[in-house]
Amino acid sequence: MKTVTVSPREKTLSALLKQALQENLILRAVDGHEFILAEIDSFDREIELTRQNEQLMHLLDARGQEKATISLAEARARLATDSELRENE
């Protein structure tokens, strides 16, 4: 894991860090990616906070149920379907 120092000039991020002192946050990017922002005192604390995040646990459980791989034929079929949908828009 990489540590990044946040400059006080980063007002929006500094405000989010202050909020994260009170409660864990899930940050959702425009593209739908989600990130956890939580204070950590130690690795054990990080694990505890992560396990308490019911939304994340449900997401991980759902992803764990997905197929690990798809066949080449399935990938081609999905790409063809996506391509057809874009053409019809």
Report what the structure shows.
- The structure is a single chain.
- The protein is 57% helix and 9% strand.
- The protein has 89 residues and is mostly helical.
- The protein has one domain.
- A two-stranded antiparallel ribbon has the order 1-2.
- It starts with 10 loop residues before the first helix and ends with a helix.
Helix percentage: 55-70%
How many DSSP H or I helices?
4
Largest sheet: 2 strands, antiparallel
Helix-strand pattern? HEEHHH
Give me the side-by-side strand order of the main sheet: 1-2
Can you give keywords for this protein?
two-stranded antiparallel sheet, elongated, single chain, mainly alpha, 2 strands, 89 residues
Please give a quick description of this structure:
With about 90 residues, the protein is mainly alpha-helical. The protein has helices at about 10-20, 45-50, 55-65, 70-89, and strands spanning about 25-30, 35. The chain contains 4 helices and 2 strands.
Secondary-structure topology with pairs:
Layout: H1 11-22, E1 25-28, E2 34-37, H2 43-52, H3 54-65, H4 72-88
Antiparallel strand pairs: 1-2
